[in-house]
Amino acid sequence: MLRQADETTSARHGLAAGDAARPASADWTIAQGWERYTAADHGVWKTLYERQTRLLAGRACDAFVQGMGELPIGADSIPDFRRLSEILMRRTGWQVVAVPGLVPDEVFFDHLANRRFPSGNFIRKPHELDYLEEPDVFHDVFGHVPLLMNPVIADYIQAYGVGGLRAQQLGVLDKLSRVYWYTVEFGLVQQADGLRIYGAGIASSATESVFALDDPSPNRLRFDLERVMRTRYRIDDFQESYFVIGDMDELLALAHIDFAPVYEQVQGLPEFEPDTVLATDRVVSRGTGAYHDARRKAAQP
Description:
Layout: H1 39-56, H2 62-70, H3 81-92, E1 95-99, H4 105-113, E2 116-120, H5 137-144, H6 151-170, H7 173-185, E3 188-191, E4 194-197, H8 200-203, H9 206-214, E5 219-222, H10 225-229, E6 241-245, H11 249-255, H12 260-266, E7 283-285, H13 290-299
């Protein structure tokens, strides 16, 4: 689960750490430094990997399961980006490149537009298993990389990179970021055998992988592009609403849409809070809101 940090969280990485963490390369890439991982680092990976693979049985979408099975990702050690890239390149033309942590938006989009997935090369500490501010190697590799083996997802994420560079120029990056958040990070897909996870923010989180599918609290709504562009999201807790696609081909369709007219349509329109359910929404399941209501009450003085 990616969450805002408290005082016990480890030092920041990449862009979040300021100029001291800026690498010499303009594209922010660095060596993964696989040989420098310690036994403790690999131990954290093993703990996270084994816990998530147990939890995701019957919860992860078919494309995730297939991609994971075809890549050199296992419990015993943090994956080597070179080995991952060899297989990805043959299948979908992607590669994994190491970065020190968060990178500037334009760098992130340029990598995606050129089928390079930037992954933090650090791993969380043992006390951060369930609480992390920045995406680390477990979130990036375990959560994202298996789906890059799927041609539809591979094309969609590249299109997002191209679209991100354009959205910056148009001044509408917040709208596009919501599309990424509610698909690539926190998306659900309706399979024949039920709702399944494909978003990396869910797939890499022990608590949210259960909450997103099993808890009665959140709303689960059919994905609508304009609706998503107008919907805020939570960065500090579980999502109050998840958006559901019917199949992966919906993402492929999004990859071919010119978003510029959509940006114009939603510009200036009211925005929605994360828990909003509209009369026009196609509701998969209406949430009780109990979890977040309790959190808000507990926070009151």
